[in-house]
Structures are given as C-alpha cells and as structure tokens.
Design goal:
With 536 residues, this protein is an alpha+beta fold. It has 14 helices and 27 strands.
C-alpha cells in the first residue's frame, strides 16, 4: 500500500527545507518530505552557543567517520552531518559564507549554463534578511536573518588589527563586492536564536498544509519503473517494516553529499562494478555517483592568553549566569553568537588574483584544538584552511543495508597544492601572533608549540591534528552529458533517468571558497524555480 504526492523530497535539511517551503505555495501541490532524524525540538538546536552541545549528539547527527587517510598519518576523522529537521544547518556553526564570484563562474565554465555568479546572485539575495541592509550584492527582504558580531571583544579587535599590521585590509562584508581581507563572520542568527532554513523557511511553510513532514523516516531505496523514478521506500522502525510513497511528478534527493550518493548506489544508480559488489541491480550506470568528494581540512593553533576576556572565562561560574541573563534580554552575549568569530581571506602568493587561503579566529580555546570541548585555561584558537582544495575522494556504500555506514574517503592533503597553501596559512598564523596588536596577549603557544618550526614540522602537525571542515560536497556532480563523471545536468536532473533530481551540496562540481551552507541554500532556491517552471 502506498500513498501518492506530487513530489517526494528526501531530507529536510538546509536544501530540503528550503525547497519544500518554496514549492509549497504552488496552488494544489502535495509534497511528502521525509527526514531520517527527529523534529528540531531540542532547545540547544535554537541557542547559538548550543552548537557545542549538539554537534556530536548521535540523536541529531550522523556520526560517520572517514576512512584512514594516507596523507594524514593513517587517521580517521569525524565526518559529521545533521540528522534532524534543519539538517546540518541545525547543528553547524551558523557561519554564512557565499564564496567568491569566480567559484560560480567556474561552474558555468565547466558546462553548467545558468550557474555563473550573475545567475546565482539573485538567489543569494532572495534568502537574506541582512540586518545592515541590502545593496547590489546583498538582500534584506528574505526570511533568513544574517547578522554580524555584536559582542565587543578585545581579542577579535586585536586579530583584525594584527592583519592590518601585515598589510591585510579590513573588509566589512566578505559576502559583498570582494571576499579579500580581514573581518568578522556573519551568521544565520536572528534575535539571539539560530535561524537555519528549518526555522526560517520550513516552519512557516508547514502552516500552508501542502507539506506532509515525516520524521524518523529513513529512505532506503529509490523506486523505479524502468528508468523513471516513481517513489521512495522508507522505514520508521530501523528496518523492521517498510512503507512506500509515490511521486506523480518527481523524486528529489536532498540528503547531502554523503547520504544522497549512498541512496543512489543502493538503489542501483552508480558505477556498475560497485553496484554488483554490494548486490544492487544496475538500474542505470553512472560512474560519477559518489566520486568527486570535496571537503575543507584545517589544523588549529591554540594559544594561552592573558589580560583579555575569552569564551573560556565567560562560559563558567557567575559570568555564565550573567551571559545567560543578557541573552534572555536579547543583549549581546556569548550565548547568542557563533563560536568562530574572525576571519582573514587572503592569498598564499602575491601574484594570485583572489584569495586561496583562510585563517579563522576564536577568542577561546578547546581541548586539543577539538571544537566542542572548552579548555580550562583562557586562550584563543586560529585555524588554517586551503579554500579550494584539489584533493578529491569518494563515498561508497558497503552494502545495500543503509544501516551500515558508507566508506568516506576525502583523501585530505593528497594534492601538493593543498599542502603548500595550508602551510602558507599556518605561517600566516605565526606572523599574526608575532604582531604588536595580537602578540601582547600571548602567554604561550600550546599547539603546535614553539618546538614546531620548520616546514616539515608544521606539515607533520597538520597531518596529526587537522580535522574536517564538515563541508562535504561534489558527489553528484553537475555537468553536461559529455562529462563521463557528471551525475546531474544544469537543471539538476539525473542524467539518463526521468523524474529524479538532486538538490543539495552533492551537485557542486567544485567546492566553494568557504563554508558551504550558504551556497547550498542558494542551490535550493534556484532549484525551486526550476521545479516550478517544469510544473508549468
């Protein structure tokens, strides 16, 4: 027995929530939205500082681990993704970074018409409700609040001042005309509360009655009639029983860059050799499914500080109570802000025409540099990134059992340029710590420590300590049919199949220059117009 809707959307994360909300205002439309996780009722999901409490909660996240990486000393690292209404947007650090104009121009140059910067800019602006107002680059009439740091902090000011000493100018809006420079992060926070797409878009859209949201509903198979996707099989009781829901128009996969390719593979879409190895029928051969995995990788420097107030100080004892009261009164507080506050988007070599590396800044320290566990000593944390890593990996199902974790191999640091740029970022951190503005607060470098000095030692430290940015993308690559590794076309329809579309970070043909949450929302906004256009 199955039920029938116009659209069946798999995943109520950032993409799925945005897409379902935008489609729900089509007169007479019926949408079934399946989410493997629970409703977003946990109060820590809505408190910005609650990020530390939820990011590793197995009830709210997929606790995946990567495969051992040859270039990171054989380590496996966490590969966290959200498993709750709102998806990763409900558990992430709330940082809002669009990327650079050339990121999207490159997508268009790779054979994806309609995805250049001028094409996607209206969709970025459509979502935004920027507190500082709109302009030719920014939107201020959308549903998602975008706000910068209100809380005054001497260390953040010193970080930006240190960049100035090194000739790096302050940039008041890295999402505006140019990304280059030093500044403070912007967040999807409004009124002291996290405002991810689950809250900003989906929650009000549910009142229209067009969306049937089913939580705890884990998709296990895309159903096909020949080469046409007709629905989804799912379970709500860990596989004891199964139900089916049919789609009159389209099945749309929004499960993210790990779960979307895995679902395609167990459903018989992917590399034929892999499908045969896991016992899946070959419904359609697409060798690119699960390939082209991109992610950011970052080692962190941890420094003990003096004569400055840090998150470590404010997050305990009477000060924490005071911060809680300030948050309740909607005044600036550590409860109502993100964890990572400052940034420098800059170039690893002066001859480059745009930034290729990033340094992040937190006026607080974490145990062993691992975000989520505050240290007992007052400190600050700086991270180094390669903005557009060239190392790519893969996602592969191990079997047709979706309760068995997939193989996740990002191949961090296997590309030589990734190592070179990351090393430049680590050296920039050391230069920042040596400036008058920031250096006056430094007591001691705890990680990697003063004994680590040479290029080889810094790179060895990166291999030993670096972690994922949780920005997985690219595993259902957008590209023309002439590209043998492309999975979807420029309208996000799966090549060679009918009634099946992918709308999430997996369609990115290459990673964007920064956090991938904002571009994922943009993809869903643009996809909604495409789907509406096909509705007629």
């Amino acid at each position: 027995m199955s039920e029938t809707y116009d659209y069946v959307i798999v995943g109520a994360g950032s993409a799925g929530s945005t897409l379902a909300a935008r489609l729900s205002d089509i007169p007479g439309v019926r949408i079934c939205l399946l989410e493997a996780g629970p409703k977003d009722l946990n109060p820590f999901l809505h408190i910005p500082a609650g990020f530390i409490k939820v990011i590793f909660d197995p009830k709210l996240t997929w606790g995946f681990m990567s495969e051992p990486g040859d270039a990171i000393n054989g380590r496996s690292v966490p590969a966290i993704q959200g498993k709750v209404v709102g998806g990763s947007g409900a558990v992430n650090g709330m940082i809002y970074v669009r990327g650079q104009a050339d990121d999207f121009n490159r997508w268009a140059q790779m054979g994806n018409p309609g995805w250049g910067y001028d094409d996607v800019l209206p969709y970025f602006r459509k979502s935004e409700s920027r507190r500082e107002g709109g302009d030719q680059w920014r939107g201020d009439k959308g549903q998602m609040p975008i706000f910068g740091l209100d809380l005054k902090n001497d260390l953040v000011d010193a970080f930006i001042g240190a960049a100035g000493e090194l000739g790096i100018p302050r940039n008041p809006d890295y999402n505006g005309a140019s990304q280059a420079g030093a500044g403070i992060y912007q967040y999807n926070i409004g009124g002291g509360r996290r405002m991810a797409p689950g809250q900003a878009f989906l929650r009000p859209a549910l009142k229209r009655g067009a969306i049937d949201l089913r939580t705890g509903a884990r998709a296990t198979q895309v159903l096909f009639d020949g080469t046409r996707a007709t629905g989804i099989r799912y379970t709500t009781d860990n596989g004891s029983t199964f139900r089916e829901v049919k789609a009159l128009r389209e099945v749309i996969l929004c499960g993210g860059a790990i779960n979307t390719p895995r679902l395609l593979q167990v459903s018989g879409v992917g590399n034929p050799e892999l499908l045969k190895s896991i016992g899946a029928p070959v419904v359609h051969a697409l060798p690119g499914v699960g390939e082209n995995l991109h992610d950011h990788f970052t080692p962190r420097t941890v420094v003990k500080v003096h004569d400055a107030v840090t998150i470590n100080d404010m997050a305990r004892g009477p000060r924490l109570i005071g911060q809680g009261i300030r948050w309740l009164l909607r005044q600036p507080s550590i409860i109502g802000m993100g964890v990572v506050l400052g940034n420098i988007f800059w170039k690893s070599h002066p001859d480059l025409d745009r930034p290729d590396m990033l340094v992040t800044f937190t006026p607080g320290s974490f145990r062993e540099g691992f975000l989520g566990k505050l240290d007992v000593v007052p400190g600050m944390t700086l991270g180094a990134w390669q903005l557009r890593p060239e190392s790519t990996g893969f996602i592969r199902a191990r079997s047709r059992d979706l309760f068995e974790a997939p193989m996740i191999q990002p191949n961090y640091l296997t590309a030589e340029n990734d190592r070179r740029v990351l090393l430049s970022g680590q050296k920039l951190i050391r230069r920042l710590l040596g400036t008058q503005a920031l250096g006056k607060y430094v007591t001691e470098e705890l990680m990697p420590g003063p004994a680590v000095q040479s290029d080889d030692e810094l790179m060895d430290y990166a291999r030993r300590q670096g972690l994922s940015g949780y920005h997985f993308c690219g595993t259902a690559k957008m590209g023309p049919a002439s590209d043998p590794m492309a999975v979807v076309d420029a309208r996000l329809k799966v090549h060679g199949l009918q009634g099946l579309r992918v709308v999430d970070a997996s369609v990115m043909p290459s990673i964007t220059s920064g956090n991938t949450h904002a571009p994922t929302i943009m993809i869903a906004e643009k996809a909604a117009d495409m789907v509406r256009g096909d509705w007629g």
